[in-house]
Amino acid sequence: LCPLTEIYLLYAKLEMEHGMARHAMAVYDRATRAVLPEQQYEMLNIYIKQAALVYGVTHTRSIYEKAIEILPNDQAREMCLRFADLEKKLGEIDRARAIYAHGSQISDPRVAPQFWESWKEFEINHGNEDTVREMLRIKRSVQATYNTQVNFMSAQMVAAQNKKNDIGSLEGDEMQQLEARARQLARESLQEKAQAEKKLLFVRGSNTEEELGDLTKTNNPEEINIDDEEDGSDDDEEVEEMEVQQQNIPSQVFGGLQHSHGAGADDDDDD
């Protein structure tokens, strides 16, 4: 026993010898909830034994019910058999049959054949044809339920394994697709780089600035050649130098202007 269990037992013994019995029962009840799970079955057996000694076997019914509720299936099945045997000794056949029916829900016929054998023997000794038939019907129902559960669990396990395999295959496919995509992008990048290099115009270093200017010129059919027009206008504006001969102007051209001018000239002479 663990130290905690021993403390509870010593405490309950102290209450039994120097205190009150109901205080000792309260200590046993607390111990069944406080001890480790692996110690619960043993503590419940001690609690049942002490309760039967102090209050009688009928007081142990609540303890059996509690034990069947909190214990694992194997230990709870054992408590069901002991509880049913107690009710059978007390002459409570119906109560014992109800306990067998309750325990059957946690008793797979393939795992716990001794439980069903004990119930069958009980029905043969204390039942009739109808009760035996009902017992067999419950047995088939429980077996079908466990078969369904087993099949369902197997299907879940298979599905989980298949899902795991599918996830693994999907991850592998995704990695392959990513690698293929990366290779494709690399090829496209190399092709674009090669095409860009082909489009570059390479000029020899010996070319003069005029040659470079000619290379960069673009042919525009709508462009107006201003230089040609300016050259032509300069030719039109050029004037040939000619020798000018002086000739006498006839007197009729001037008319009276000549006479007035001549008179003024005479006056000046007289002065």
TrEMBL record:
Keywords: mRNA processing, mRNA splicing, Nucleus, Repeat. GO terms for cellular component: post-mRNA release spliceosomal complex; Prp19 complex; U2-type catalytic step 2 spliceosome. GO terms for biological process: generation of catalytic spliceosome for first transesterification step. Residues 210-271 are annotated as: Disordered. Coiled coil: none annotated. The keyword Repeat applies. It comes from the Eukaryota. It is found in: Nucleus. The keyword Repeat applies. Pfam families: HAT_Syf1_CNRKL1_C. InterPro entries: HAT, HAT_Syf1_CNRKL1_C, Syf1-like, TPR-like_helical_dom_sf. Residues 224-243 have a biased composition (Acidic residues). Residues 6-180 form the Pre-mRNA-splicing factor Syf1/CRNKL1-like C-terminal HAT-repeats domain. Belongs to the crooked-neck family. This is Pre-mRNA-splicing factor Syf1/CRNKL1-like C-terminal HAT-repeats domain-containing protein. The lineage of its organism: Eukaryota, Metazoa, Spiralia, Lophotrochozoa, Mollusca.
